[in-house]
From TrEMBL, chain A:
Membrane topology: Multi-pass membrane protein
Pfam families: Proton_antipo_M, Proton_antipo_N
Annotated organism of origin: Haloplanus ruber
Transmembrane segments: 6-26, 33-53, 88-110, 122-139, 145-164, 185-204, 224-248, 269-287, 299-320, 327-349, 355-375, 396-417, 437-462, 483-501, 546-570, 651-673
Domain NADH-Ubiquinone oxidoreductase (complex I) chain 5 N-terminal: 77-123
GO CC aspect terms: membrane
Alphabetic keyword roster: Membrane, Transmembrane, Transmembrane helix
Main location as per UniProt: membrane
Localization, UniProt: Membrane
NCBIfam families, per database record: NDH_I_L, PRK06590.1
This protein's name: NADH-quinone oxidoreductase subunit L
TrEMBL record, chain B:
InterPro entries per record: NADH_UbQ_OxRdtase_chain4L/K, NUOK/Mnh_C1-like
Transmembrane regions: 6-23, 30-54, 60-84
Top EC group: oxidoreductase
Subcellular location: Membrane
Pfam families named among the record's database cross-references: Oxidored_q2
Protein name: NADH-quinone oxidoreductase subunit NuoK
NCBIfam families in UniProt: PRK05715.1-2 (NF004320), PRK05715.1-5 (NF004323)
Record keywords: Membrane, Oxidoreductase, Transmembrane, Transmembrane helix, Transport
GO molecular function, one term: NADH dehydrogenase (quinone) (non-electrogenic) activity
Superkingdom of the source species: Archaea
Automatic annotation (TrEMBL), chain C:
HAMAP family, sorted: NDH1_NuoN_1
Transmembrane segment boundaries: 12-30, 42-63, 83-107, 119-136, 142-161, 173-193, 213-230, 262-282, 288-309, 316-337, 349-372, 384-405, 425-446, 467-487
Species of origin: Haloplanus ruber
Major subcellular site: membrane
Alphabetized InterPro entries for the sequence: NADH-Q_OxRdtase_suN/2, ND/Mrp_TM
Coiled-coil parts of chain: none
Protein name: NADH-quinone oxidoreductase subunit N
Subcellular location: Membrane
Metal-binding listed as a keyword: no
Amino acid sequence: MVGAFDYAPAIVLLPFLSFLVALAGGKYLPKGGAFGGIAATAGSLVLSAWVFLTVSAGNAYNETLYTWVAGAGEETTRLTFGLLLDPLAAMMLLIVSLVALLVHVFSLGYMNDEGETGLPRYYAGLGLFTASMLGFVVADNLLMAFMFFELVGLCSYLLIGFWFRDSGPPSAAKKAFLVTRFGDYFFLVGVVAVFATFGTAKFAGEGAFPVIAEEALAGSAAEVTTFGFAPETWFTILGLLILGGVIGKSAQFPLHTWLPDAMEGPTPVSALIHAATMVAAGVYLVARMYGFYALSPTALGIIALVGGFTALFAATMGVVKREIKQVLAYSTISQYGYMMLGLGAGGYVAASFHLLTHAFFKALLFLGAGAVIIAMHHDEDMWNMGGLKERMPVTYYTFLSGSLALAGIVPFAGFWSKDEVLYEALVHGLGGSPLLLAGYAMGLVAVFFTGFYTFRMVFLTFHGEPRTEVARDPHGVRWNVKGPLVVLGILAATIGFVNMVPVQDLTGIHLEFLHDWLAHGELSALTAEHYGELLHDYAHYTSADVASYVAGAVSLALALAGAGLAHVLYNVPEPTEHTAKLGAVKDLWYNNYYQDEYQIWIATSVVLPLSRLADKFDQGVVDGVVNGVSSVSLFAGSRIRRIQTGVVSNYAALLTLGLTALLVVFGVLGGWFV
Amino acid sequence: MVPVQWYLLLATAVFCIGLFGILTRKNALLFLMSVELMLNAANINLVAFSAYWGNITGQTFSLFTMALAAAEVAVGIGIILVLYRNFDDVDVTLAKGMRW
Amino acid sequence: MTPLQTQLPTWTAVAPTLLLGLTALVLLLVDSIDPDSTRPGALAGIATLGSLATLAVAGWFLLAGTGQTGSGGAIELYGGSLVVDGLSLFFTVVVASVVAMVSLASYDYLRDRTYQAEFYSLVLLAATGMSLMGSSGSLATVFISLELASLPSYALVAFLKDNRGSVEAGLKYFLVGAVSSAVLTFGISLVYAATGSLLLADVASAVGSAGDLVGIAGVGIVMIAGGFAFKTASVPFHFWAPEAYEGAPAPISAFLSSASKAAGFAVAFRVFAVGFPLDAVVPMGIDWSLLFAILAVVTMTLGNFAAATQENVKRMLAYSSVGHAGYALIGLAALSGGGPNGNVMGASMAHLLVYGFMNTGAFLFIAMVEHWEVGRTFEDYNGLATRAPAACLAMTVFMFSLAGLPPFGGFLSKYALFYEAIQGGFWWLAAVGAINSALSLFYYSRVVKAMWIEDPTGEFDLGATPVGLYAAVMVAAVGTLLLLPAFGPVVETAQSAATALFA
């Protein structure tokens, strides 16, 4: 029988087809190829839904479709493409294809109606972006995942730099590409190391690398090369190497700096990057190979700590930003911090849940911001807005729904998922892990800041009196903008109901559907149940007994306090800037803790020599090397050319110096004058 | 007879004086003269060691060097003339339109 | 086959060089018969024909085996001061082909300028010097031929007398060149002091027993290396190159960066391989191959890194030319006392031949763009392919070939060079070269991207097609392409010529 799984490759191929169509014939198509993209993503969505239904009937799919490098003999390493469709992948497919579809529709309003040029290029980019992310989601091995991971990075480069004639976007695109690629170097080393260690990079099934690793730790598998380390140590190293790629793509501290700059791209692209694709890829990768990470308490602890810290760190910076998209950018970093915290704290389901809810409410917020930006004639400064509530009610109420979800106000989606992440961190932390407790504490404080900056944004944008002429008479938006907003607004309000753990604990009614969804499955090594055992056996996670509704109440109170403070300060007809009261802290936050400055310093004086070393690993991936080395080298090149001062006397001096140095070095080396 | 090492020292000293000249002089003509000093340092060597080795190769070569130095000056003066026409000075540091 | 030199008098072995010099004199003669009228066609024609004749004769000699191991070895003239062998003929071929293309292209470039006859005769005199450089068997001829190549070049760079850029370039080239030639002369005098001879063969036999004078010999050898570094535009004597190539008339940039550089390598190959044999000088502590290895690494890195950030295409090419000097230096660096040194040096020679075509073509394309008055930066090239697709296609060939991409000549020559370096045990040189090549693809492809992918920023008003320039660019492109299938015989010839030096 031909089932959904036979059509699964089409989920990836359809958007790819739309990429080809837009690229080749976008010029001649109406709307610059938009309809092809919409049709393709709609097709992907339908197929994803079918896959979802098939998976929910208890099926799973894990097949190698194409072997592109096969060594001679039986035991050699094979490089393959394949599909892995389990509950996690099915859920992610739905998220990605739905958000991609909505973004395509929204783009009609944001790009076409605004008379942008270069639309075929835009839609081609969107198509390829969607296709690469979907390919990444269904990848059945680490190498394939890596390749699509890189494609995602490439597409983000192309799309962030879409307006390449302005000065900002190309440099933002370059930065996004460079920073994430820096992480990817570690990822690539990790992929090679995984191959070297296990001889395979498959995620699931017979002889998958998490399974071998588990056996190795249990002492029942022999053929693992650990290069002289104890298996635990080596697996931790592997996990951390791969984590490098995750930190880069998911914009975790300290590689988060590219993301705020990435706001230079078109807003629908920001929505796609932040909600469903690029940034989500990192977290998804950790979830995908969670069976491997669950073996290493050290790696988990680091993930949790990085996540918690990032959540707090980014939230504080979001407090002082002036541009609406900047606030959202920092909120994204912060929210992905929560997901990392959840994963590190052993909350596989909680983190996946947050990934799900965040995808919808963050896509909503970005598209809402896009609508506002259309209305404001592409002015993004919140201090020039105000009072938009009466003038664009649909946008306002959907945006409000997203904001409530982001701030974590009951009963909107974000409350349930964020609460569960924090709950996992708390119980496992109390169970004997001070690292997780630290992560929890930071995550909790970040809740307050989240509530504050979210509602500061809402109040400044929509409430009070209009502060500029444009805000008094904003540009209208059409159905193609409102439609996606409404769909996402409803989802943001309701999607949290799939997993209401605190309510279940209070009332005893069975409400944790997502837990059920992820806990079981045909591929038993990829289920939450199995992960729970691994966490208990290898990472030694134990749970303290804390009622989930208590933890939920605490974070809700903090979120309300933050929102309340924003209400007091900013929900007035003529809000003023209170940030000055923060004094030096404001400067620090406004300048993002001077992250960019120190990273440029690192890039020029530390990374450069390091990246030359890293080259040797990359000889096979010519593309990556060419781009990576070239871009990083531009820093060096701009310095080196300064030697050529233009003054001929300096040349004579340098020439003499060079000759003298050579004479001295060789004279001493050769012992000419002894 | 003066030992040949002294000629070597003299030649090196003259060469270094010439080098010092090109490093410190901005005037193109003085720059050229300094180069002439360096060439003549080579000539001192050639002639001195010609005597030392007992063949005339070095002496002959020093004649070539002088002739070529003259040719070089001829071309050099031409270039300095057009430099003066274009920049109204013979200061070599003025011509710095192309750099980096 | 009967060796050629038994059929012809021995002096005819330098016929290619003589033909170049003769053409220069004929040009002056034609001009002096009727100094008041300019006849660009006749002058360019004579120059092109003369260089083509040189090319033909040198090619014939090379194929016939004149001066090569198969037919009795190198031909020595004037007591060994001039040597005609595979190396000298090979580089004469390189120089003559570059001069032919440059003369052809200059027809359009010079159309409305005065002093055309002087221009062509200076080019041919410099070419004579370059051809002689490859034949120099004595340090005296080395110095004289080097100056014969340099002095006309200074004048040619400053040829556009009213153009500040050209004058500035000429000044810098001249001043750095004067200092370098002084350094070279002093180096020669020191080597003479240590060995008592200027003939390379005698120097080679005497240098090993320099005894107390090892320091003098060492300083002399390093200074001579410095003089050659100037000719080849290698660090630290490269400072003139970016400016001279940028400011000079573009055909002259092509001439200098291809032919002059090749000639610099020709003389360096002969002087160091013949005059300072490694197994004699290395035990004394004069390890010049290490010196060139350092220069190679620094030169290719500096050239490529600086090229990567340029905005001006011509200046980018200038720096890339410095970078290529670094690659070619591998031919002098990846040598060892006993190794198969001829292979890597031959690969370097073959690379210089391919480079002669692709780099000349690239600079002549720039000349064409200057002729059209399009502009100099990458942005100015945006969308140029919409107006001049054939020329842009040729430029694409040059760029990809320079970057070392298949299927162009530059790919094989660079590959052979790195391969031979690895065979000689110098894998790290090859690795640095490979990294630099990867970087170079970045800036070469910027040109291609600008021409083909970007939209034009304004209207191009190109005017009539410059026939000579077009033809020269096409010849260079076809040459670059043909050198891919023809690379086998080329590299074999070069390697046997280089092996003969070490024998």
